[in-house]
Known about the structure:
Belongs to the class IV-like SAM-binding methyltransferase superfamily. RNA methyltransferase TrmH family. Residues 114-252 form the tRNA/rRNA methyltransferase SpoU type domain. GO terms for molecular function: RNA binding; RNA methyltransferase activity. Residues 9-95 form the MRM3-like substrate binding domain. Keywords: Methyltransferase, Transferase. The chain is α/β, with parallel strands linked by helices. The chain has two domains: 2-99, CATH 3.30.1330.30; 112-254, Alpha/beta knot, CATH 3.40.1280. It contains ten helices and twelve strands. The strands form two sheets. A seven-stranded parallel β-sheet has the order 8-7-6-11-9-12-10. It has a five-stranded mixed β-sheet with strand order 1-4-3-5-2. α7 links the parallel β7 and β8 (166-169). α6 (122-134) packs parallel to α7 (152-158).
Amino acid sequence: MQQISSVNNKLIKDLVKLKQKKYREETGLYIVEGFHLVEEAFKACKGYIYLLGTEETIVQVEQKYQLDYTSSKNIIINSAIARHLSSTKNSQEIFMVLKISQPKVYSFNYGKWILLDHLSDPGNVGTIIRTADAAGFDGVILSPESVDLYNPKTQRAMQGSQFHIKLIVQDLLTAIEIFKNNSIPIYSSVLDSSAKQLQEFNSVLQLGLVIGNEAHGVSSAVAQISDQKLYIPIKGKAESLNAAVAAGIMIYYFA
Length: 255
């Protein structure tokens, strides 16, 4: 097992850079942090590049999952380095470095999917993915303009659902064309005169449900080619619902 004691160590410097999207894209690597996400990665049998933690935390994980204590992939660090690597105020001092794995071939020929159109808030994106996982949806498709799937805040908000559900970054117009070729209807959450209240819809076996940008909603190009437009009626004085809350209501309505 390696042991690193300085924040100036080259590997540590390289790993700190993974907080930035640019370096995640360059290296094809990202970091998950905290016992829950590390354990979910192990449960999903994700092969890891490095496991880093203080002696106490790394031994705890190694004993639980019967890892090779001598492996060079397992690295003991001190609390100062843990704070340096952490994206949270109260680090649990355990980290895992994983490979970014985006599928090269996409198949949307069945099931229920969420399509995220230019969503910009990592907490919303992570919460929607977690909700889709809990409701038994097959996957989530993110437009390339949406927040980075491997953003640390997005990773924390998903709470391990990133290891359970299909997550694909794809141009939505291209994805929708594939859905339509497979007779899967596209429903978009849109506020306009042609939209119907959510309660007017019946349950369906398959669909692609589009959630739009927090400020601007579903893009006009996507709305125009949607099969159905829907909205959630506001009964009080609030102007609108949070994107993740609205998505959760619709996801479970169609689950």
